[in-house]
Amino acid sequence: MPDTLSYFSILEKYPLYPLLTFLSFAVYCVGLVVYRLCLSPLSTIPGPKLAAATSWWILYHDYKNKRTDTITNLHRRYGPTVRIGPNEVSFTSATAVKDIYSGASRESGFPKGFLYALFTHYGKYNMFSSLTSEEHSWRRRMFASSYSLTNIINRESKHGHIWKTVGDYLNYIRKDGYRDGNTPSYAVDIYPANIYYACDNITGHIFGGELATKALGSRIDNAQSGQQRDALDDWYIPTRRELIYLWTDFNTPLRYFDNCEWIVHKIVNFVQQRRDPDVEYAGGTFIHHYAYTALLSSKTSPVTEPTVAEKLLSEKKSDRVPRDFDEFGAASETMDHILAGMDTTGDTLSFLLFLLSLPEHHAYQDVIRDNLPEMPPFGQPPSVATITQIMTNPYVNSAIKETLLIFPAIPVTLPRVVPSGGRVIDGFRLPEGTLASSSVYAVNQSLLPGFEKNISSSKWTPSRWLIESDADRDRVQELERRLWSFGSGGRGCIGKHLALVEMSLLLAAILSHFRLRQTDDCPIEIKHSNWTARRSFRDLAYMDEFNGIIRFEAFKE
Ligand code: HEM
What we know:
By secondary structure, the protein is α+β, with helices and mostly antiparallel strands. Helix content is 50%, strand content 7%.
């Protein structure tokens, strides 16, 4: 019988085997590091040597939830181009951002990194989660016009949904705010209030006023509003999207998910078919269920206004979309818009109201208030002229833009992958497959004076957006052009104008009825223990000293 070849018998025969294995591995590792540091096409890009040598360096910062902060500090030290991993480079210059995110019109920027595959719904890709330009462009074409500024303002001037929701918000303050004795002032936990506001607006834009959520709750019975509020509160489980970048680093599961999209969809479909169509939570959570059933209801509702849902349903029948684009695909789009429009707009509003409530900004509140136009009652749609006047009011504008600049709701890296053939960015040749990206926060901070010397401050200074001289004009125009809080190019934020209209109208209405003040002791329940725990898509903890409560001092009922 031949000898069994066991590990031990090999050891007996070749005693140097383990040592040789170890040495080969060590030579491989040293070779890899030498290649990455000295021979790789990325080796001339500035950055920490450790980051260039091993991806564990950025992984460690991802794990500590410190990616954005770390990258921003590296840009301060090394300039606009920094290598942050063996295969990853971060950029802040205007040309690099243009090349990566806008690119040739055919490409509409580089393909997205796999991180985005996390944002499918019902097992179906959507505009945000689709990675390549082929998967994305037909989707974006479907409803790009629904989100143009002209369309939003015209629709608002006819139907006045946003203005009605603004009215609901003011009622919510008076009804749900904590009133101390007989004082005409109301303490409100503004974080959930702003999420409800953003949700009622985006769902109104997608499905129309009838089918919109009424989380602010003044237009329908409280039970339904209460249920919607609870669902929205539950959505923000603090840990839901923590460590999101580890998913990009360990993207094998995402690639796997990408390949088995159709299996997930088949399962969702199978479960759906066997359930009562009215049963709750089709496709996942309450919000998934709402988006799916509201889309189905849109099919039978009389068309009274040009909604996004109506556009989706009519495009679905056309030959401009792939044949397998079904109701779940359409519902995935609506879900995507709801989620993309909810915490971004809601949080930006929360930062803005909190900043204005600070004693050092009370004077700026007064300046905004003193420059507001006469506004219509909430039951009546505002005219195009009124909306335009509010939107172009330099003080309203400056407060919103400054909040977007210093506290962008999505400050993180927006990952992109260098397409086939490689590209030259900022004078550096990047091979195909390199992760070439920018972080919103780093780009915005790099626009502030003294950034490189680390003396740029994150102090909220809305007056930097005011034009008082010719020199100011050039500076402000450049700032407007480069403000990157909504991203840019073919994959930039489609909801930007909707968000700006929502924020401008709400700010104008609040300041024309209330003074915003801080409050110390207030016995109201805080939905989220502090703002650090709520950073849904942020690895920066803005204003973590703020508990979310603001006092609205009424001077006009
Ligand atoms: C202050 C509010 C908002 C901010 C700061 C914001 C920010 C952003 C950013 C930075 C991106 C680019 C992501 C990337 O390139 O990877 C983006 C994309 C997107 N946003 Fe917004 N957003 C806001 C409001 C909204 C609203 C109200 C909607 C509602 C429709 C929306 C829908 C989307 C969608 C669908 C995309 C993906 C676009 C595409 O891939 O073509 N956003 N947003």
